[in-house]
# Entry
Amino acid sequence: MAASRGRRSRRTVITLAALAALGLTTGLATGCDAVDKAIDCVQTADTIADSVTALQQAVENAGSDPTQLDQSLASIDKNLDKIGDRTDNVDVNKAVDDLGKAVDNVRTAVKNGDNTPDVTPVTDAAGELTKVCTS
# Structure
């Protein structure tokens, strides 16, 4: 009977150790997943910052090549979709929405004939997105 109790005790210890290891592994995987998402956010925010710089240059050069404005706006939209699909962070989603609205406003201004729209709201929103992704 004592041997039986010893085996059960050993099995219990082994089972508990296995469950603890599983819990640790799951916790680490989840932590890595969060880190991966944060890195994706920062990388995409950096890409958006580059797109915003291209947008500013496109506005400056609108007289010589008006298609640059559309290309820059499309690039920002594409990258916003990437961030929006990869996160469930409320602050990041709000920053993505704000930047999307600012891009839409510039696009509307261009459609209405403004070849030199004010891109300050886009720049500000992109800065906020970068700040949220890095905090």
Observations:
- The radius of gyration is 25 Å.
- The chain is about 85% helix and 0% strand.
- Residues 31-134 form a domain with the Four Helix Bundle (Hemerythrin (Met), subunit A) fold (CATH 1.20.120.660).
- Residues 99 and 125 are 5 Å apart (CA to CA).
